[in-house]
Write a structure and sequence with these properties.
about 450 residues; Trna Endonuclease, Chain: A, domain 1; 6-stranded mixed β-sheet; 15 strands; about 20% strand; globular
Length: about 450
Amino acid sequence: MSVTKKTQAIKRKEQLALKHARKVPRTKTKGPYTFKSAKIEAEIRGFKVAKDAKIHWNAQSSTTPSMRKLLMTNKSEPYLNNIMSGHNRPTPPTAKEIAATRRKQSETLRARGLRQTHWVEATAIKAVKRIIDPFDEFDFEVLPDGLNPDVAVRFKGADLYAGVQFKAREYGDWCNSYKISQADGDIGGQYETLIIITSAMKDLHTSGFKQSMIDFDFVPEVEVGELFLFGNATEFPNKTLSPYPRRESEDQYGHHRFVFGFDEEERLETMRNDFKRLIWEKSKWTRSQLWFSTGSGSPNPNLSTGHSAEVLNCKSLAEVVGFDNLRAPKVQNETVDVIWTVNNTQELRISLKTALVNHDEEDQGFKFELQKHPNAQHCDFVFAFYKNESGVRTHVSVINARRVYLEDVTTFNWSPTNNADVLFQRIALDDAEHAKEMLESMIDGIRGSCKL
């Protein structure tokens, strides 16, 4: 991707233009500011000045009037200069304005190649494994998308795993924000129990790596520019992990950071030893806990409602086909959620969905939303799970993915009069052994009628 970088002069010009657009000229008062004139100008601009603001104003008598603070009814204290310049506004931004700001930030990050993308994360996991585990002492297992940890790591042959959260960006001469904060590692934070590894890779968007990822589960080799390793997010030296390029070997990140071509090799050995120690100390979870345990005291304390539903769907599938027969794809957040190895011979790529009651249908219909589904061509089947009022998964329908993931389709619907076979051929989950036999039989039938 070719991106034209803005010069500081252009950025400054844009900032001044935005500031000028918010500025309201002073028209009602003249001369040096007094409390009375400052109050008038603030209220013209929509600010609500507190009744006791004059006492607060007079207490700042040693300060230039334009640099004094005005006390507002909401207890905020903006500088008069910021009120007059338009830098401060009287009301908080609307939901529409917040959404527009986030959209603009997202577009900027995407244009510069700085946005967290799951294919970048997949390349980072592979590259970090190669660097931090040169003697292949550990098992790295990518976990399903949406869980708090991205990877389960254990010593070869061990029973318990440590959870690791990966963050990845492109390497460059700029401030790299990894979108993770100290608070994430606090008690109750989403990464409370997790080791944190972040990495910045070189030439991600100029070397055709993304274009080479055509085949399912293929992850290219990339070159790492720098690595960060923390036992917990609370170890960050600042509230967020947003490092500037390393200029001195003993900056605030110290041995938590290694920059290739800058730091001595001994520092990388120190990081490898620290990683080994952390895996030893934090190996406390079974594979099943990392996949399915949620809530306080688990490796997944903070999951979204949607991801919590996916966990329950996956757990129900594991109870039927056997947990050891399931694995996650190497690239997260794509159409394929989980891979089922059938009879140790063939892998089936599955998208997991929850069947929702379709209130638009008069005859007991169901549906699920499709949303974005990148690389849907790699998906074999959609498993739609039905739930009762308690959230227990009771049945599942097996649907050919080619039937679901069509261009410009946002929902898939079925009922007794529409895609009726999906409803009538659903499989009960109360008997796991029988359900597995039915799943395999139905899959064979679908494959027989339509080659995958």
